[in-house]
Amino acid sequence: MFSPDQLVVYPAQGVGRIERIEHRNIGGVAAEFYLVRILGNNITLMVPVDSSNSIGLRHLSSPSEGQAVMTSLQDRTAFTGYTGQNWNRRHREYTERLKKGSLADVAYVLKDLILISGEKELSFGERRLLEQSMDLLTRELSFVFDQPNENIRADIETLFSDILIKKEKVE
Fold first, then answer.
1. What is the pLDDT of residue 165?
2. What is the mean pLDDT of each run of 10 residues along the chain (171 residues)?
3. Which one of 70, 74, 132, 147 is least enclosed by Cβ atoms within 10 Å?
């Protein structure tokens, strides 16, 4: 169970704060909801308390989990590229991973898309997913490490500077 003022992560939306827990009658049935304000875009979500686990609402990652994710971003050995997959299939896979909401899945999507972008141009949807995954990852890690979002983004861009610099020269 979460409590008011607690930071949580909502899949595909990012870090939010539990504003309060509300009791409402919906269709004659009493229900309890978390009111979660997503910090990145200031929207408020009502998440049923009973199904918050199945929806994927979770606690903020620990610093050790955050460090493990940053380490995983450096490891390029498992990258196979886009061989045999079209952009539509990759887009579906990446969207599903982002909906799961684990920090490791978000990092996987980001790393894969950055590495693919070093080999070929990304589709519009893939570019959107790259930005979404970068935003989700940097926002959560900024809270985990208590650093500004821009610093985390700069650290990640430094990890992939060989690819990002190569892309800038081509464009």
1. 61
2. 94 94 90 94 92 88 96 85 72 90 93 89 90 96 96 95 64 52
3. 74
- Decide which of 1.20.58.1290, 3.90.1150.10, 1.20.1250.20, 1.25.40.10 is the CATH code for 63-170: 1.20.58.1290
pLDDT at 119: 83
Are the C-beta atoms of 8 and 15 separated by less than 8 Å? yes
- The span from the CA of 153 to the CA of 150, in Å, is 5
Would you state the structure tokens that stand for residue 30, as one six-digit string? 């009493």
The CA-based angle 14-12-23, given to 5 degrees, is 70
Query: Is CATH 3.30.2040.10 what the domain over 7-59 is classified as, yes or no?
Result: no
